[in-house]
Design brief:
Length: 341
């Protein structure tokens, strides 16, 4: 590498080229810098799309399923979304990365009105508590509300209690009203969840053993309706819930890639049996072909594939699309982190 002073005048492109040319750094710094550059572009695009937005927008914050496979091959963050309607933000799921990704969209934290959790797997809830604390420091209003399966109330109280010392330091330092509680409404069954001046939200119970309940949600905004499958095996009720929606965001797994990925992980020492992993995945998740059938049955205009499994790079958009397009003739979007729809 060059000295610090001579690095300053370089463009990002020449900096990247410089890193690639430096043998000692290529393995570590090269991919990391490249990834940062790509993320910045996606963030700038998202900010521009939201700035020009007319009506309700959905931002895919993280489009990868599962908590595993962390490392250079993982190309997608864990599951989270934000919907922006009339200046109010609604977050759905809080996988690792939700705070950073939300911030990158440029949506201010005081805009955050409600948080929804589909189920208590870590790729959907691990950054829920941190979002409350970091959001609060960044101006999130204390009347933010959270919705999700039991025991969300207890989890929220326990998390805030665990971070009381941290919260109190900030409250004292910045003369802020401390975060002491968040209003939680647990969703133990299918039906209406909540309603405000922008949106009516309902939920269904989906098929995701042994998680009970695991939820799918439908958001009916004034100008568009968006349905989310959550994590589920192929399930009739999702098509029914999403009936006539403008957008269905559905989880999808690509089985051939998942099989080779799993074999690879086992060869590297992951202590599981191939048959057990695949049996679990088939009982709990939806192969891309079945997603196409469900979207067709629902009659949605646009199908968004997200919670992609495996969340690695190397599966092209065309591969995902082809699996689904055999059954669904509408608009198919292969989700990408920070995509605005
Ligand atoms: Zn998941
Ligand atoms: Zn799950």
């Amino acid at each position: 590498m060059t000295s610090t002073s001579s690095t300053f005048g370089l463009s990002r492109r020449s900096l990247l080229a410089g890193l690639a040319a430096a043998p000692a750094l290529t393995g570590v710094a090269g991919p990391l810098v490249a990834q940062t550059a790509a993320t910045k572009t996606a963030a700038q695009e998202a900010q521009a799309a939201l700035k020009d937005a007319n009506g309700t927008k959905l931002v895919l914050l993280g489009t990868g399923g599962g908590v595993g496979g962390l490392g250079p091959r993982r190309a997608r963050r864990m599951t989270s979304h934000v919907m922006l309607s009339n200046g109010a933000a609604y977050v759905l799921d809080c996988g690792l990365g939700v705070i950073d990704q939300y911030a990158r969209t440029g949506i201010p934290f005081p805009a955050l009105r409600s948080i929804f959790i589909t189920h208590h797997h870590a790729d959907h809830n691990i950054e829920y508590g941190p979002l409350l604390v970091v959001g609060w420091v960044n101006g999130m209003h204390l009347d933010v509300r959270a919705f999700g399966p039991p025991p969300l109330k207890q989890m929220t109280e326990d998390f805030i209690r665990a971070y009381k010392t941290t919260v109190d330091f900030w409250a004292e330092d910045f003369k802020m009203k401390p975060l002491v509680a968040v209003e939680v409404k647990e969703v133990p069954a299918a039906g209406a969840v909540t309603q405000d001046d922008n949106v009516k939200v309902s939920a269904i119970i989906v098929e995701h053993p042994p998680v009970k309940p695991a939820l799918g949600y439908r958001f009916d905004f004034k100008d568009r309706s968006i349905a989310f499958s959550g994590d589920t095996a192929p399930f009739e009720a999702v098509a029914k819930m999403a009936k006539g929606a403008d957008v269905l965001v559905h989880e999808a797994m690509y089985v051939p890639a998942l099989e080779s990925y799993t074999r690879d992980e086992i060869a590297k020492g992951r202590p599981v049996k191939f048959e057990d992993v695949m049996a679990h995945m088939k009982a709990d998740h939806t192969p891309a072909e079945d997603v196409g059938r469900i979207a067709r049955e629902a009659g949605v205009k646009t199908l968004v594939l997200s919670h992609l499994v495996p969340a690695t790079d190397g599966i092209t958009d065309d591969t995902w699309r082809a699996a689904v397009a055999r059954y669904f003739k509408g608009n198919i979007i292969v989700g990408k982190d920070l995509m605005v729809l």
